[in-house]
What we know:
Layout (H helix, E strand, L loop, with lengths): L3 E5 L10 H14 L7 E7 L1 H12 L7 E5 L11 E8 H11 L3 H16 L7 H15 L17
Helix pairs in contact: 1-4, 3-4, 4-5
Amino acid sequence: MKNVNINFETDIEKSSMDIDEIKSLLKNIYKQENIDQKCELNIIFVDNQYIHRLNKRYRNIDSATDVLSFPVDTVFLPDGVCILGDIFISIERAKEQAKMYNVSLLEEVKHLVIHGILHLLGYHHNTEEQRIKMQDLERKYLTLGCDGVHTKDESIKKC
């Protein structure tokens, strides 16, 4: 999956992120959601201060958050070009949540990547019905094995 760009705008040990596993997860989501494998996606890891500024500027919310998604307006793209958008993840918040939920940092990052890509695909959680739908999809993709088949438990299978 060469069209996924993963950038680090914070001081995180890149060795703590299994980029190949994240890309494998995305490949399965692309397949399940019928997204062209050539569609570009940017995932940017940032700190709380950075995501706080984004949240304030674009959502008028004066606090840090865990993940923000910014879809690309496809109207301005040339025919045949597919860019889903950008997903910003606060690695600081991901570490806090991983500890709180008693999961690995990679598991929490995967959850945030899934949440972010679902927003890029048009899913939202503004109503109870939307929230339930999005949670069901998050659970589905968290439990999706690397071969595209669900694992029996809800743990994430190593690819």
